[in-house]
Amino acid sequence: MVWLPTTSRDEIDFTLKENWDKLEDIITLIAEDDLILATGHLQVADIFPVLDLAGSRGVDKIIINHPLTRVVGATVEEQKEMSRRAYLEHCYVACLPGHDGLDPQRIATAVKEVGARRCILATDLGQIHNPQPTQGFKVFIDTMMELGISHKEVEIMCRVNPNHLFY
Question: What integer is the mean pLDDT of 76-103?
Answer without folding.
Answer: 96
